[in-house]
Please model this.
Amino acid sequence: MRNQLWFLIVIIALGLLLSIHSQAKIQTSVQSEIKATAANKIIELNKYLGGAEGKLNNKPALNFKFTNASGSPENTCSIITTDNYLRHSKNRLENINLSESNFYFDCQWNGTYYFLSNRYRTYAEVIIKQPDSQFPMSMHIEAKLVSLTGERVEIISGDISLRRKPR
Model:
């Protein structure tokens, strides 16, 4: 009886230790995620540089380039989408972890290449606002991208007019 009681006490103590250890691991994981989120860079796009026709997956595509007006002209982000996807997207382009092969978004910023990945949580979303008598066509962009070294960046914009302004 005494051995059984001793055995029960040991089992309970081990259970408590395991519980404390797993709680510490969870807390450390949450703290790491919070630090990673706080360390993310933010790029704000506010200027349309122009567009061009091209190809994506051997299909006709459109390529749109954007930057930040107050930054270096070498800092650019690009949207490329097939004509067909753009026409049938209902004014919303979306790619989560490379789930959409007809729309891609990437940036070259301060010498670092940022892109969508299926190994990290990444996404790009573009809302297209159709023109009316008051405003030209515009795009609203949000994205989370990653670099080859695992550095993450968040891309945001207001509504960027797709009317090119003279230089």
